[in-house]
Amino acid sequence: MTDTAAQIEARAGEALQFLADTDELAAELKTETERALFRYKSHANAHFLAISGSVEERKRAAERECEPLYSDYLEAMRKSEGLANQRRSRALEIEWARSLYANYRHGKM
Fold first, then answer.
1. Are 69 and 39 in contact (CB under 8 A)?
2. 1-9 long-range contacts, CB within 8 A, separation 24+
């Protein structure tokens, strides 16, 4: 195997290893995002029902009261989407390496 082919395989191998190593983490982060959203909605609904006033006043008060929970949700989403973006980039890297390797095998490089 030539140096170019070895480099292509090494790059694809690193990307595949990253994807394999982050499968569980990606699932955990996605689940944590869903949990954070559920906590926010549950608390907001509970506060909405406990507060008196017009519907709009109750809605705004519940949102203000649960703002830290919404921030937790946004942070969980940021982490989850960040890893998802890295995983998409690595998947594209694998496709790029496959295409490059196919071109190499057919003598187009």
1. yes
2. 4/104, 4/109, 5/101, 5/104, 8/97, 8/100, 8/101, 8/104, 9/97, 9/101
Question: Is the pTM higher than 0.85?
Answer: no
How far apart (Å, rounded) are the C-alpha atoms in residues 107 and 26? 38
Per-residue pLDDT of the chain (109 residues; tens, 9 = 90+): 578 888 888 999 999 999 999 999 999 999 999 999 999 999 999 999 999 999 999 999 999 999 999 999 999 999 999 999 999 999 999 999 999 888 877 776 5
Q: In angstroms, rounded to a whole number, what is the distance separating the alpha carbons of residues 12 and 17?
A: 9
